[in-house]
Amino acid sequence: MVISLFTHHLRLLTSLLLANLLLLASVTHGTHLTQHNEKESLLKGINVFRQSQNLSALTMNYKASCFAKEIAKQLEGESCSQVTDPNSVPGVPDILKKCKVNINSTTDGLMLSVCVVNRVPNLVLNNFTQTFYGKYLKSSKFTGAGIGKEDDWTVVVLSTSTPAGSFSSFACRSACGSLCYLIVLLGLFLTWLIE
Ligand SMILES: *[C@@H]1O[C@H](CO)[C@@H](O)[C@H](O)[C@H]1NC(C)=O
Ligand SMILES: *[C@@H]1O[C@H](CO)[C@@H](O)[C@H](O)[C@H]1NC(C)=O
Ligand SMILES: *[C@@H]1O[C@H](CO)[C@@H](O)[C@H](O)[C@H]1NC(C)=O
To answer: Which residue range forms the structural domain that includes residue 80?
Structure first.
């Protein structure tokens, strides 16, 4: 009896978990497929550039990506001819809160933004690697990157592996993407099982 109840719960847990995994997979791959492709090919291009400088590849930092995306949203609608200093974008405290980033983990990070009409991929990449921005992309200090884009704007946020530049939060110090979500879900189900 106890065993069959346990198996039943286990089966339920497995199917619920599977359903969540599928949901998660469809969310990530359905709606964001094209976005990911553009971001991933830009990151790839940056990493080819870094490789040519004998530097390690940057890995995608999801919290930095959230930050970059929100900054890009603030720049949305501004034309390239308008002189904008993205560093003066308002609402940064709100963005940090929204992305669950501790401000103290951003001080070593760096934000670079580029405006190219229609975000022509090669021009965007060259604007990052072939201008004075290249100097920053050549730095071995940076280990991760987050990418955001909106209209003509592409924002790259560089992160470090040190606490002062990791774009982490208190709650989840390591890179916290869907894995964290799964762990939380699993925790919820386990609590529910025990009850
Ligand atoms: C990268 O390393 C190779 C082989 O060690 C060397 O020939 C080349 O000059 C290096 N390139 C740079 C940019 O440091
Ligand atoms: C950031 O660091 C400062 C100085 O160490 C500290 O006073 C502040 O509370 C920290 N802020 C957060 C959000 O942790
Ligand atoms: C940067 O982008 C502009 C278009 O906004 C383009 O005209 C220029 O050639 C690009 N610069 C580089 C170095 O690719």
So the answer is: 57-194
Domain count, the chain: 1
* pTM of structure: 0.71
3-state secondary structure of 9: helix
**Ligand 3 centroid distance, CA of 61 (Å):** 26
When pLDDT is cut at 50, 70 and 90, the band that residue 111 belongs to is very high
- In angstroms, the CA 74 to CA 59 distance is 25
Alpha helices, DSSP H, located in the chain:
2-26, 33-52, 62-75, 92-98, 121-129, 134-137, 178-194
Q: Which of 97, 99, 104 to mutate to test the pocket of ligand 2 (most atoms within 8 A of CB)?
A: 104
Say if 24 falls within a structural domain. no
Task: Tell me which ligand sits closest to the C-alpha of residue 101.
Answer: 2
Answer whether 129's CB lies under 8 Å from 46's CB: yes
